[in-house]
């Protein structure tokens, strides 16, 4: 039962990441109104020419990989810095999406916790 719940949560999490990544390229969902400081930050990311593209690619690739149980551990680590960035953005720039940011972070941490034995292989002697 736990593995089925984890699969469903991973599927939804992965689809949200894929959707967020694709939206950065295709612009099919309008950006919500943000405070001025948050808008300036987003403009700076877009004008850099590569940061938003990098984030989008990682979101899409990790979103696909997190759905597949065999690659879920790798994807959780790949997407972790992005979920931290989402949470920090909403803490410091635009508090309107803070709840969803924390939910995404908790899901990511749960997936990492469920795969901890795979990470232990990297640090054991």
Please give the alpha-carbon distance between the first and last residues.
34 Å
**Main sheet: strands, sense, barrel:** none
Question: Over all CA atoms, what is the radius of gyration?
Answer: 15 Å
Number of strands: 0
Helix content: over 70%
Shape label:
elongated
Descriptive key words:
single chain; 125 residues; mainly alpha; elongated
What is this structure's SSE topology?
Elements: H1 2-26, H2 36-48, H3 51-67, H4 72-92, H5 98-114, H6 116-123
Helix pairs in contact: 1-3, 1-5, 3-4, 4-5
Question: How would you sum up this structure in a few lines?
Answer:
The protein has helices at 2-26, 36-48, 51-67, 72-92, 98-114, 116-123.
Describe the structure.
- It contains six helices and no strands.
- With 125 residues, it is mostly helical.
- The chain has one domain.
- The longest helix is centred in the N-terminal third of the chain and has 25 residues, at 2-26.
- It is elongated and about 45 Å long.
- The protein starts with a helix and ends with a helix.
- The mean pLDDT is 93.
């Amino acid at each position: 039962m736990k593995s089925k719940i984890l699969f469903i949560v991973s599927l939804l999490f992965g689809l949200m990441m894929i959707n967020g990544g694709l939206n950065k390229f295709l612009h099919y969902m309008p950006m919500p109104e943000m405070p001025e400081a948050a808008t300036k930050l987003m403009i700076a990311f877009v004008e850099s020419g590569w940061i938003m593209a990098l984030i989008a690619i990682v979101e899409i690739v990790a979103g696909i990989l997190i759905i597949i149980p065999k690659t879920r551990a790798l994807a959780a680590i790949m997407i972790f810095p992005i979920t931290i960035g989402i949470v920090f953005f909403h803490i410091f720039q635009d508090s309107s999406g803070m709840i969803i940011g924390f939910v995404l972070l908790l899901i990511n941490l749960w997936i990492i916790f469920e795969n901890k034995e795979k990470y232990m292989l990297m640090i054991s002697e």
